[in-house]
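User: quick one
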Amino acid sequence: MVAAHQTAAERESHLSVRIPRSATDGVVLERVSKTYGGANGTPVQALGEVDLTITAGEFICIVGASGCGKSTLLRIIGGFERATSGTVRVGDRVVDKPGPDRGFVFQDYGLFPWLTVRDNIAYGPIERGLPRGRVQEITKQFTELVGLERFADQFPHQLSGGMQQRVGIARVLANDPAVLLMDEPFGALDSLTRQTMQEQLCRIWQELKPVVVLVTHSAEEAVYLADRVVVMKGGPSHGIPGHIEKVVPVPLSRPRIVTGTKFNALRREILATIHAPNSGDVSPPEDG
Amino acid sequence: MKRALWALPVPIGIAILWSIAVSQQWITLIPSPLEVLKEMADFTVGGVRRDAYSATFVTHLWASTGRVLAGFAAASAVAVPLGILLGRGKRLAAMIEPTLGVLRPIPVTAWVPLVLILFGLGSRSAVILIFIGSFFPILINTIAGVKGVPRRLTEAAAMLGTSDQAMLYKVVLPAALPSIFAGMRIALGLAWVVLVVGETVGVSTGLGSVITEAREVSRTEVIVTGMVFIGIAGLASDKLLTLLIQKVLGNRPLIVA
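Assistant: Done. Structure below.
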């Protein structure tokens, strides 16, 4: 993995500047809410009014039980869904549709099955109209960054889940996004692969420093990765809209030791918040 | 090659049973396999019977292939774009799909009288009938392929910077291609089926017309010969189309996510 040892200046020379991005691009959510039509005509408020300010280069993990609206929130930032009210801003741009400044990594990868690993990674740079030579450089750089140079000519279905997700990550990084949005990116992987992927993601983030917003079910994953862990609760099945219950800063230096005392204290704090009964609940939820 | 050998026992078995059935007179008025083989030899290279059918195979094959290809190509040229439009546009689909739904179950044989009135006796009507027969499988499969493009893929493309206008040829077409090709294969097979109907309408050359004429003069061995050759031609054209599809795809996998 040669690229990991490049200096920032070397990396800069490879990356495009066509995508609007500046080192100060943070993400600001202002009173973002989402209401769905509902099956029998009664509207369902999936997401209450959410406020969140993410500074440039920050790593945020969103945790919460199923149905708390964490994926909806992420998809609103991605521009796949429109907020019913409120605004999402990346830098000074208001989000209204998907775009290459916000790379999205799906749990089910969403790779183009008819393109090789190389062509999947080259897709974004080509769409941005970069000259051929640049596309090749960038593709090579990010193929190496995720350690897939030996598999560059393979098709997605020939790869393991972990490798497919590395392609999923590399293809959005090739667009030099200001924000990396990840919806349970390692949820479909076995625990060993998951650990490796978490370490690699951490390394890549430290090198490229985009804003990362990662949605996960795992408190441990959140504490391992995030600068701040956003704990969400509620959701239609609890009678109150999904909302941010608590934001837990993780003041631990990286690489983090998952067996450390402080690490475990944070993990327990987050789990306790997730498992505490919702104000609308009659009895505490059994899952999670 | 070894695989090819495995294919032999079944037709040989059928020929033996058939031969016994004829010699024991379980069935009558049906020629024996040997007679058919003789006719096949005469039909292709001649020199056995020296009649109107001797050594005319290439002429008939050529005429039939031309009609199949013309009808199939025209059907593809109309059905693929129309299928893409119908798969993409909800309003257009609401306008056109019910009409197509009514037209689809009508068998090609039912079209024969109208087609003859509109296009007259001859090759043109045969091509039109083949067009009608192969049109719907391509259309239905194209619509299904376009509608079946996983939303995840268009989301991925949009997030990587693909505009709505470019989505069609960047994502929808490549993702729908396997389904479109499947429709074309079915249609080409059907085109040979329809050929026999198409060539009853006053054409003098073609494998279908050979069968039609032979029926009028009770030459059953010629009928069976025509049947066998249509089968072989259909199989060969399917193999060729598959080869062509593989050429187009290169080493790309023929799967949808």
